[in-house]
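Model: Ready when you are.
Researcher: Fold this.
Model:
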Amino acid sequence: MKQILYVVFALFFSVMIFSCGGDKNYEIKGMIANPSLDGEYVYLQKIENDALQTVDSALVKDQRFKFTGIADSAVIREISFGNKGTGLAPVVFVLQQGHMEAYVDTFSTMTGTVDNDKLTEFQTQRNYLVSKIQKIMSEYQMEALKGPISDSITMVYQGQYEVAANEITNLSYNFALLNNTNVAGALVFLQSISSFTYQQVESILSDAGQTFLNVEGIEMIKKQVDLEKNVAVGKPFVEAIIPDTTGIKVSLSDYIGKGDWVLVDFWASWCTPCVKEFPYLKEAYNKYKDKGFKIIGISLDANREAWISAIKKNNLNWIQLSNLKGWDCPVAKDYAIQSIPMTILFNPQGFIQAKGLRQDMLLIEIQNAYDKK
């Protein structure tokens, strides 16, 4: 009788432990398709400071592994493998309370909770579209092996590729938009943001829930979007004061909004694509400088000698400014500069006319500006 009571008590106590705060417990049971990982470890990791940090590990036995723990809130995690895991896709998922099941193969999934079931469905659809792109590329390569491909044939394949790529973007956008209150939506948003337009990013963030916004990396993107709103086409210039090559501080308002077209060019001596833009800048400058056209170069260099040397070497005979702080340049931050070269064209009244003009598009836009004038 005492033994029976002890067993009942023990069972009751274990249930209480799991349920008292059991609403925060998680369990991940995993199966790996590749038996070569038996005896190896798999790793539960988080992204911290742009690097993966291991938070737990589990031994693989009979192609199975298990993680258990407490999830105070839903977070993005990854299950990855050692050197023997080559060819296996890491499991990127939402770690949250509940029982989850991971299946690891060349296409890995996590199921068992609402967020992860949604992700698995999304990833399956996306994987299908990716396979379509791979098929298109493979067929194009096979055609190339037969001999030269005509422009018309290339355009057909390019069109097919763009259709499939747009399908992936639309799938990702719609998922993030419909799930902008949960971590699953945040994960897809972060993975896909490079393919989204500014308007798509803004629409996803505009009414996003706090759970979505609290995911690491989202707040930085939101701040960037808010910055870009202030320097969108049609917005007035943002004042800045920055030294020239002699150290004299110059205000952008000394030139912008004074009745002339002004092009601000963000560049750096170490930026090869920037150097390739110089001939187009020179052509525009030489053609329209007598009509009042001005270029202001703002360098993201940190080394003064490299900056001055590049100006002389490339004969950049227009206004040159830099505070020599590299990517910490306050002006670059104020204008939401994420990559260079980046040009911003201001109309005579000081409002942003166009952004990101390069090569022939730069020449055409400036020619149109003076034709209209």
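Researcher: Now this one.
Model:
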Amino acid sequence: MFIIGVAGGSGSGKTTLVNAILEKVPYDKIALLAQDSYYKDSSHLPMEQRQALNFDHPDSIEWDLMLSDIQKLKNGNVIESPTYSYLTCTRQEETIHVAPKEILIVEGILIFTHLALCKEMDMRIYLEVEPDKRLTRIIERDMESRGRTAQEVIKRYYKTVRPMYEEFIKPSRERADMLVMNGGLNHEAADFIASSILGKLK
């Protein structure tokens, strides 16, 4: 199994890049794993406290479970990946059936901050996007899919998203093998990565 990590700040276009790659590569040859699925469950907290959680700190992720699932896939085992709801800030009862494939793409803002996880990856790709552009994308995304107002998104951005980016995520790009300028909108990079994957499959 060849493992590709895709990281970058919130709003850098990780999902967009992955989807562009999937359009060019046989889907049945690739498995996907999202860091967001491994946020720690917060159902024991009142809703007000859940909404104030810092989702951009490495401590918010259940790394041991994520690492264990990746190692199971590498060993040829099927896993049931957890799912997480941003609307309720809780882990869901539903799981995602993930079977081992020749290629595994792991994506998330914090995946390069975890050294043991990085060591499992054969290729590490970091999406580099200007903060102002990322903020615009974050506002659009959070209003559309996470039930937040623009004011709430901007407040969260300056309180946690931006500081955590500077402290943890931006420094983690030093562990990347490849920097993709303009993030998920860089179609040439998507083509190059897809070609590399096709080469591995052959």
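Researcher: Key takeaway?
Model: Residues 2-201 form a domain with the Rossmann fold fold (CATH 3.40.50.300).
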